Amino acid sequence: MASRLPFSPVSPVHCRGRKLVQSFRCSAEKQTQSRDARKLVLEIKEKLEREHPNLPAGKNGRDDEDMILWFLKDRKFSVEDAVSKLTKAIKWRQDFGVSGLSEESVKSLYGTGKAYVHDFLDISGRPVLVVVASKHFPAKQDPGENKKLCVFLIEKALSKLPSGTEEMLVIIDLRGFDMENADVQFLKYLIDVFYYYYPKRLGQVLFVDAPFVFQPLWQLVKPLLKSYASLVRFCSTETVRKEYFTEETVPADFQ
Question: Which residue spans traverse the membrane (predicted)?
């Protein structure tokens, strides 16, 4: 009489064993990928120090390993591409004076309430940047000050990133929007800022309660967004309230 197997090939014990093996393999792959990424980060760090010694060091500088890894991921782990993009980003930060931006330095527009970083994260644990389009007046407000406010708020939102979170949510409130608020040039600037200097940091963009007059502007801007267009969602105030926040964390403007 043939001996019986200790358990069926499809028994719970066998399934648990198979899952355990898969878990070990997955863990081993992640460790290998982590080691490989670490090597590339160090390679870029040494390359920047050797080829661009005049670039600033420290946080968001040529030896900031977190920033290097961020750009390395964006460039699909191509060392040359990451170095090229990272070099431009660090130079831009230095020339723009990003580290010197403060609430005081942008107070002329910050006080208008046209844009702000929400106090709470959304339900996905992302920092939230809210833009109130009806308070943006390109004919009356200085473009340079608008750019400063934009970068200051992006930096402020990123400073609220919880561990393990890499992206932010941007909500553009279009209630009350009119053509005097339209600003294609600034939207182009915003797109470039995220693409070149804050890649992979934009998780989703909500256009809330877009009026009919916004449609022509959207048709102009949409081709410029390229891959970012897939991050855009047109929705209602109710959607923002119910799908992105709890009753306790929803921004006051959307309650």
Answer: none
